[in-house]
Amino acid sequence: EDKTVEEQQDKLELTQPAKQTFSIHNTELGNAKIDIEHNLGIAKRVTLNEYGVNWYAYHENYHDFFMVMYNENNLAAGLYTNQDLLTSTNGIKIGSEKETVRTILGEPITKIQKGMVIYQLQENNDNDLFLVDDTYVTIFYDKHENNTVTAIQIISKSLEENKKDFYTNATPALKEGFEYQMFDLTNAARVNHQLPILTWDDHVRETAREHSADMAEKDYFDHKNLEGQSPFDRMKEDDIVFQLAGENLAYGQLSSIFAHEGLMNSLGHRENILRKDYEYLGVGVAFNEKSQPYYTQNYYTN
Prior knowledge:
Elements: H1 5-8, E1 22-24, H2 33-40, E2 45-48, E3 54-60, E4 63-70, E5 76-81, E6 86-88, H3 98-105, E7 111-114, E8 117-120, E9 127-132, E10 135-142, E11 148-156, H4 157-162, H5 172-192, E12 199-200, H6 202-218, H7 231-237, E13 244-251, H8 256-264, H9 267-273, E14 280-287, E15 293-301
Parallel strand pairs: 12-14
Antiparallel strand pairs: 1-6, 2-3, 3-4, 4-5, 5-11, 7-8, 9-10, 10-11, 13-15, 14-15
C-alpha cells in the first residue's frame, strides 16, 4: 500500500545511556564529535556560548531539537534539550515530576565554587542543579505543567570549573550566540506545542538590540524606555510594519537557556512565546559593565 512521506520517516528510537546516567538523542557526554557528526551530519547552527565554546544545534524544522558542545579533545562536554529526547538509567525523563527527580537525585546543590570564590545559587523553584557522574545537571521544570521536567542541561565538571566567573565577559560573538540560541529555543518550544515556527528577522533584531543596549547602559529594566516609548513605538520608528506585535524581556540570567526557561514559567511571556499568530522574531542582547546580559525579544506579524 502507498505510504505518505511523513509515515516513512523513522521515529528516532531512544536507547538507554551506555556509560552515563543521562543521554540526549542517544548522545552522551564523552562521545566523540566525529561519531556524533557521522550519525547526525552537520549541525544546523554553531554559536558561541558562555563556556567559551560553541553550541552545535541539531533539529529537523525544530523537531528533535538538541544542542551539544565539545571540549578541546572534541568530546561532548555539554548537552541540552527541551524536547522528549532524554533517556536515563534512573527513570528520569521529560515529563517526570519534580518530587520524583529529587527523590532519585537527592537535594539540589545550593552553591558552586569558581576558583577561590563560592557563588550562592539563588533559590529558584524553576530549576534544580545536581552533581551526577562528575557532571553538573540542571533540570528545568514547567510550573504551568504541574512542575514536570521540561528541559535538561548537562555540563562536564571540568568545563564548568574552567568558567572562572559567574558571568562571561561580553563579546560580539557571545551576544550573537545568545540571540540565535534564544531564537532556536523559542522555536523548539513552539514545536512542542504544535505551533508554526517563526522566521528570524534581522530588521526587528536591530530594534531589540537597541532596547537591550539602552537598558544595559542606563540601568533600567522595562518595556517603556526612559523617553516613554513602548515597544510598538520603537518598532514603528524603525519602519517595521505589523498588525500584531509583542515583546519579552529578560535580564541577568547566565545564558539564553536560563532566560528562555524563565520566560516559559512566566505567564505573560509564555503567551508571547506560544502565540499562534506570530510570524517573525528578532532577538537582541546587550551586556552591562558587569557582563550581565539583557535580552529583548520582538515578535510580530505583518
